[in-house]
């Protein structure tokens, strides 16, 4: 089986619950692929320590993911056009430096290199207008940082001298990339953390506008790629797994209680998926 994880910031807690439950219940995951927060989840599946994966999403706080840039805060005190100039020079709204420490402390690259689970992580290459793919051998903390670098919100991350950003721009749920590897996969489960009946609220801030725009692109791209995967790989059972109810989490609002609930919902939704596979 291939497990394809798409992320969604704090919504990644639900995906972590799904991944952990599927692996715990014996599904033979041959390949784990992801972008954005899904890249970190996929790397931790390849790492193999599911208890650490779940503990991370039960305890992580906003301060462990990002801080506000002082230049952005001070920009609001400047007159007129100087505010825009200050924001432009800041490069991004948020500073993800804490995320680097969180990722470095959450994964063991040597375990991933030796893992029997093949890893595929997608970021976007700004210089070439194309995707950049990492595997067990080439993945790094920088690669995982880049895969989650939402443009405008987080700064690009240079890997091998090339600026990379969120993989969601080119392959938010990289099912096409995973199946193109030609591995003997019978089933691909694409995990998307947005319920079918989820509706966006009217964005009232720059941050919410960026969030809503990225989510809209992500949802449509994932559904399109799932249909393309079914068309191109008719011998693979491609399934799209979504939450049984809206998660009530914003991507950048790392609410500990909300994420703990989302993780448990993910475990329950995974069990329901397994029951459906087995005709229960």
What would you say this structure looks like, in words?
The mean pLDDT is 88. By secondary structure, this protein is of the alpha/beta class. 47% of the residues lie in helices and 15% in strands. Helix 3 packs across helix 12 (256-277) and helix 6 packs across helix 8. Strand 1 (2-5), helix 1 and strand 2 (31-34) form a beta-alpha-beta unit. The strands form 2 sheets. Strands 1, 2, 5, 6, 7, 8, 9 and 10 form an 8-stranded mixed β-sheet that branches. Strands 3-4 form a two-stranded antiparallel sheet.
Average pLDDT over all residues:
88
Output the structural class: alpha/beta
SSE ordering:
EHEHHEHHEHHEEHEEHHEHEH
Supply Rg.
18 Å
Number of strands: 10
Produce the secondary structure layout.
Blueprint: E1 2-5, H1 12-24, E2 31-34, H2 37-47, H3 50-59, E3 67-68, H4 70-75, H5 81-90, E4 94-95, H6 97-106, H7 109-113, E5 118-125, E6 130-134, H8 141-147, E7 157-159, E8 162-166, H9 168-171, H10 175-180, E9 187-191, H11 206-232, E10 237-241, H12 256-277
Parallel strand pairs: 1-2, 1-9, 2-5, 9-10
Antiparallel strand pairs: 3-4, 5-6, 5-8, 7-8
Q: Could you write a compact summary of the structure shown?
A:
The chain has 280 residues and is α/β, with parallel strands linked by helices.
Task: Give a quick set of tags describing it.
280 residues, alpha/beta, eight-stranded mixed beta sheet, two-stranded antiparallel sheet
């Amino acid at each position: 089986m291939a497990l394809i994880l798409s992320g969604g910031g704090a919504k990644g807690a639900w995906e972590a619950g799904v991944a952990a439950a599927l692996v715990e219940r014996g599904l033979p995951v041959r390949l784990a692929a992801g972008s954005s927060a899904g890249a970190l989840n996929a790397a931790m599946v390849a790492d193999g320590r599911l208890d650490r994966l779940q503990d991370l999403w039960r305890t992580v706080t906003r301060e462990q993911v990002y801080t506000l840039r002082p230049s952005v805060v001070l920009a609001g005190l400047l007159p007129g056009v100087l505010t825009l100039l200050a924001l432009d020079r800041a490069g991004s709204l948020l500073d993800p430096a804490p995320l680097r420490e969180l990722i470095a402390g959450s994964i063991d690259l040597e375990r991933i290199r030796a893992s029997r689970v093949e890893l595929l992580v997608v970021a976007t290459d700004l210089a070439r207008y194309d995707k950049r793919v990492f595997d067990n051998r080439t993945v790094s903390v920088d690669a995982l940082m880049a895969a989650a670098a939402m443009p405008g919100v987080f700064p690009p991350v240079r890997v091998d001298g090339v600026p990379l950003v969120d993989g969601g721009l080119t392959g938010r749920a990289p099912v096409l990339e995973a199946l193109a590897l030609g591995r003997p996969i019978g089933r691909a489960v694409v995990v998307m953390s947005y319920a079918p009946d989820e509706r966006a609220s009217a964005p009232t801030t720059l941050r919410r506008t960026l969030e809503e725009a990225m989510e809209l692109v992500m949802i449509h791209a994932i559904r399109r790629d799932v249909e393309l995967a079914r068309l191109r790989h008719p011998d693979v059972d491609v399934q799209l797994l979504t939450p049984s109810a809206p998660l009530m989490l914003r991507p950048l609002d790392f609410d500990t209680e909300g994420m703990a609930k989302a993780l448990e919902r993910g475990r329950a939704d995974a069990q329901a998926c397994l029951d459906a596979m087995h005709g229960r």
